[in-house]
Amino acid sequence: MSKIAASARIHPFAVIEDGAVIGEDCVIGPFCHIGPKVVLGAGAKLISHVTLLGRTDIGSGCTFFPNAVVGADPQSIHHAGEETTLTVGDNCTFREGVTANTGTVGGGGKTVIGSNNLFLANSHIAHDCILGNHIIMSNSVNLAGHVVVEDRVILGGGCAVHQFTRIGYQAFIGGLSAVSYDVIPYGMLNGNPGVLGGLNVVGMTRAGIERAVIHTVRRAFKGIFEGPEAVRANAAAIRDQYLDCPEAMRIFDFIAAESDRALSSPNRGKA
To answer: Catalytic: 182?
Structure first.
């Protein structure tokens, strides 16, 4: 039997399969379909024609617009019907036609989406992606499998992100860009192939980062990408100069971390 909170409002044309859990004050509109292993947090709003499938756990306060499909099987030729998961945090908005898939066994078995994210129309979150908080994905953004997107990233309309790519904290990806390599925190990438054009200074300023700190991060950026050696060697050589600047250290830690992809750079897009 489904566990449906008494305060939930469910349209008679909605289908809720046995086993689903519907939280307090949820509003489920007409022609919605909720699968038997879905847990829907308090205050969720499904406007109409929304499909929630799979072993999917959704936090409180999320809103789903028509034709969103969340929790469907991964689009992977290696998926053989194993039960994997999708977890969504609180206060996320999924606009029209957004799709988000569960994980694959080979990728760890889970797709994770944080809180306070906005996914605009027809954007796609593939299997095994790990997304942070306060992310904006504009219309028709496509994330391939195993992508990591850190907090406060903005992805412009129509951009596409290659599998296993990482996008660092508060990076900005321009519309229609092809993201083939990792993008550093605060980085600003545009083009196809994507080229790292500098720092997202506008975003940093709006976030309240002081001008002096932005100048420090700029010096670090220049030392990393214009130094005499390869990018990672440059970063290792100057890292200790920036230990008292957390914003710069985000970049150094990101570069030092293991990754399956190269780094985006101002030099032909790859480092």
So the answer is: no
**Domains of the chain, with CATH numbers?**
3-146 (2.160.10.10), 205-256 (no CATH)
Rounded CA separation 44/229 (Å): 52
Residue 176 pLDDT > 90: yes
Q: Is 11 a catalytic residue?
A: no
State yes or no: pLDDT of 166 exceeds 70.
Answer: yes
Catalytic residue among 132, 145, 156, 168, which? 145
- The rounded distance, in Å, linking the Cα atoms of 147 and 150 is 10
pLDDT in tens, 60-101: 999 999 999 999 999 999 999 999 999 999 999 999 999 999
Is residue 136's pLDDT more than 90?
Answer: yes
Helix or strand or coil: residue 190? Answer: strand
What is the spatial distance between Cα 240 and Cα 228, in angstroms, rounded to a whole number? 17
> Could you check whether the bond before residue 36 is cis, i.e. omega within 30 degrees of 0?
no
| 145 has catalytic annotation | yes
pLDDT digits (tens, 9 = 90+) for 182-220: 999 999 999 999 999 999 999 999 999 999 999 999 999
Closest CA to 52 of 63, 43, 42, 61: 63
pTM (global) more than 0.85: yes
262 neighbors 182 (Cβ within 8 angstroms)? yes
Q: Which of 32, 94, 110 minimizes the C-alpha distance to 62?
A: 94
pLDDT over 70 at 1, yes or no: no
Q: Which one from 49, 79, 124, 127 is the annotated catalytic residue?
A: 127
Of the candidates 29, 124, 128, 187, the residue annotated as catalytic is: 128
